[in-house]
Amino acid sequence: MSTALRRLGGLAYRRPWPIVLTWLLVLAGIVGLALTSGGGISSSMTIDGTPSQRVLDELRHELPAASGGAGTLVFTVPAGERLDTDARARGIAAAAAEISTLPVIVHLPSSPEAAAGGSPATGPTDATPRVVPGSTTADPAPAHGPLILDGAVVPGVLVSADGSVGMLQMQFTSQVDALPEGTTAEVIGLADKAVAGTGVTVLPSDSLDAIHPPIGGHEAIGLAIALLVLLITLGSLRAAGLPILTALTGVAIGVGAAFALSSAITLTTATPALALMVGLAVGIDYALFIVNRQRRLILSEGLSSADAAAAALATAGSAVVFAGSTVIIALTGMVVIGIGFLTTMALVAATTVALAVLIALTLLPALLGLVGERICSPGARAGGQSLAESQEQGPASRWATLLVRRPWLAVTGVVVILGVSAVPALSMNLGMPTGKSDASTSTSRQGYDAITRGFGEGFNAPLVVVVRPTEGRSMDPRDLGKITAALQERDDVASVNLKGANPARTVAMFTVIPDHGPDDPRTAALVDDLRSPDLPLASDAGVTLGVTGLTAINIDITDRLRSALPEYLAIIVGLSLLLLLLVFRSVVIPIKATVGFLLSIAATFGLTTAVFQWGWFNALVGLDTGGPLLSFLPIMVTGILYGLAMDYQVFLVSSMREAHERGMAPRDAIVHGFEHASRVVVAAAIIMVSVFAGFVLSTDTMIKQFGFTLAVGVVIDAFFVRMTLIPAVMSLLGASAWWLPRWLDDLLPAVDVEGEHEAPQPQPDRAAVAIESSR
């Protein structure tokens, strides 16, 4: 592979314009497709085969009007005031009336009489507990009631007991993200217009809140820091700009392609943001490895820019191919889990990584060809002879020497620090995002808090319970009344409302409001209990119960992802052991590298749990409350960090292996390899941390969690594990670190990751180089 990459680098360097123009055409074509695709970002996350999704799929056939999405408008007034005064009540009633006339709003029967054949409700139905025919218990004095205007009930509007909060619940004809463009904005606009001038504030629920673009300008901060690090590392603006340029090209094509396909695939908010994070980070780093290697060969070996570019592709380019392959394999491995939206996220991110590798191997050497000898200034060339000596006396050399002299201190310190950091992960609570965990300045958080204050937190977590007779018979009003009463009598249920039934009354749908919020374990326990075949309610009434709705769907997604995490970890561990055994031809190094990765992952999740769930120092990330971690965060972060950890492992330990194979003593090889590779690895890690940390400034809590977790994970794995723990453990092991049974050595194919077996290239004409570089 090294020989092929050398030829590719030389060709791209000598004939740059065809390659540059090809990538420009690809970029232009992708951007054009993205702008005309007609797709967009979806807010829905579903998993086929889960109990809630099966119930929803059945409803689409049996009760189509009930299978759409739901939304809530919350009305609030200043503290100490009421919203059921005449002017305000009329404004809210007008809002409910106008919204109910929209064709996307479903009008379902709101009582057993209507379900049995009476007239439908005239507007959105409410969720107030009520007495129905056949019920044996009365309404237990609810802390809320309907809005009354001129002695009549305003359909669909609830008001809290103190009159400070109102709520209009809506059922749509389809899922919210499948509604015609501008529908939710129209709904909110009608409400705002109706209550204008009355002092009433309208707050939309999460489902009605507009989907914000995942790219908000905060990425520029990370890029600015990355550019500064590149300037320090590479020594010139010309050289530092190339990795930024190639990385931006790669993510523009990758993310653009995702948007171009968004009409055919489900593109969630997190999908393009995650691809942007990973694509920028690896794109900059992979280009940095190659440009840095080219400059080193020019400054320390005296090669011409052309020869150095070809040699850099043969050496650092080989490592980039391997490093990129590990990230791609780790991401595409998520396909085996069988979760649709997660597969899309993984494949889009993997595509941006693949593009980063291809661009680093083709476009980058072409750009180097356009820059020519100007990649290094005459001043840098003049000081190139002292490069090796300064490294041998630099901080990297001193740090590596300290590690091999005091290995037990380093190992103990890292294990204790990361072990303590991992403790919060033992109480990690996974879930899907809700308004509860958003910043207090967001409308979603304000709406969530207002509903909790006025009606109870359970109203933020409505459940849709679908009831079917076991023998296919029809249910009469008394049957429906008994079911309503039985559900209402539960201690963990706040209220129950019959939403409707099909004409044959073989399917009925209820809205059940739990006592607790959407991320409370007691709500999940309620869902499990209602689904139980041993539920007395089901056996007594001769019916089966199914549970769906956004809350139940999110609970099912979380359960599925939680159960898939151990399986994916097993895949990652096995893959890590196999790849490292192949690269380093050692039994011990793969084991310690994998154990170090598991330690870094545990510490990463521990710190993320402490900040986002426990609320420790969460003001630093722009939040003021704790909440569950995103349910698919552990799997995605594990795959990405595994690939990045193997990048650092390869670049550091392969240099140590090369020194050892040339005859150096084990400890000397550790120090020599560390000082040879650590500078660029430190720069690469800082760049990745800067890019990921820039996303913590996003207003989206999901993106915040991803940015923070990846940034912390890189810090832990790069600086604590790869650059401290691994060299110290290798020092303790000595020559045994490189032990491999002969029979296994014969079986394994030779893998030349850094191109170390490449034949030396002829020295250049230094006079010609000096003349060219001065132009």
Shape category: elongated
The separation of the N and C termini measures 35 Å
The oligomeric status of these chains comes to: single chain
Number of alpha- plus pi-helical segments: 27
Strand order of the largest sheet: 2-3-4-1-5
Overall average residue pLDDT: 83
Unreliable runs: 108-142, 759-775
Rg over CA atoms, rounded to whole Å, is 31 Å
Number of strands: 11
- What portion of residues is helical? 55-70%
Structural class: alpha+beta
Q: What is the beta-strand fraction?
A: 5-15%
Main sheet? 5 strands, antiparallel
Which descriptors would you attach to this protein?
alpha+beta, 27 helices, four-stranded antiparallel sheet, 775 residues
Structural summary, described in words:
With 775 residues, the chain is of the alpha+beta class. The protein has 27 helices and eleven strands. The strands form three sheets. It has a five-stranded antiparallel beta sheet with strand order 2-3-4-1-5, sandwiched between helices. A four-stranded antiparallel beta sheet has the order 8-9-7-10. A hairpin with a 4-residue loop joins strand 3 and strand 4. Helix 1 packs across helix 10, helix 9 packs across helix 25 and helix 16 runs antiparallel to helix 25. The longest helix is centred in the last third of the chain and has 35 residues. The C terminus is likely disordered.
Summarize the structure.
The protein is built from 27 helices and eleven strands.
